[in-house]
Design brief:
Blueprint (H helix, E strand, L loop, with lengths): L1 E2 H11 L1 H10 L5 E2 L7 H11 L4 H15 L5 H4 L4 H5 L5 H15 L13 H8 L7 H11 L11 H11 L5 H8 L6 H13 L5
Antiparallel strand pairs: 1-2
């Protein structure tokens, strides 16, 4: 789980600026718990739907998807829908192929989602990227938002890079940001959440 209070306490001694960043900008829930395994497939489908879309548009498409399949947490149900049916709700042909590939990959045992939580982060990423459409970024988002792993930092995420540039006053490459983030271990998830939320803040002080 991600415990923001523990992260603030840790950085209060080690890096007060990061402690203040988390205190000011991380989401208000102090503890973020993992989702139950029955929702793991649903979270992967939702991640595919939301790729390269605004939150508003992603919510609309996800609502249509949920209305269509009725059981968006069930890959067995999702795989019964045709390409045409999924395209009709506004999914691109690429996202449609990814969703069906995930549904098939989970049901045929290519990836056993219910076993993931017992694995370490890098092994989980290696497992998930076997599914068509799931790259490292998607797997990292799964680690952070679905499994609530406490030490996740996706240096390839554009939002995190923009927020880190603003916070540090430097233009950081993904490689430099990844190296910098090692100093924030073992609470990189808390830093990630704070950086993302800092971009939404109107507070310029």
């Amino acid at each position: 789980m991600i415990d923001l209070d523990s992260a603030i306490k840790h950085f209060g001694v080690k890096d007060p600026e990061i402690a203040e960043l988390i205190r000011r900008y991380a989401i208000t829930k102090r503890v973020i718990k993992k989702s139950p395994p029955l929702l793991y497939a649903r979270e992967l489908f939702a991640s595919i739907v939301s790729q390269q879309l605004s939150t508003k548009v992603a919510d609309i498409i996800w609502g249509r998807f949920s209305d269509l399949v009725k059981s968006p947490d069930s890959p067995e149900v999702v795989k019964t829908f045709s390409v045409e049916q999924l395209r009709a709700i506004g999914l691109s042909s690429q996202k449609t192929s990814y969703i069906l590939a995930i549904a098939n990959g989970v049901t045929d045992g290519t990836v056993k989602l219910d076993h993931l939580d017992g694995l370490n982060d890098e092994v989980i990423i290696a497992e998930l990227v076997q599914l068509k459409g799931v790259g490292r970024w998607t797997a990292e988002m799964f680690l952070l938002f679905t499994l609530a792993r406490p030490d996740v930092f996706s240096a390839g995420d554009l939002g995190l890079r923009n927020a880190a540039d603003k916070f540090t006053g430097k233009k950081l490459t993904p490689e430099k940001l990844q190296k910098l983030s090692t100093a924030w271990s073992p609470h990189r998830s808390a830093v990630s959440l704070a950086l993302w939320h800092s971009l939404d803040s109107k507070d310029e002080s």
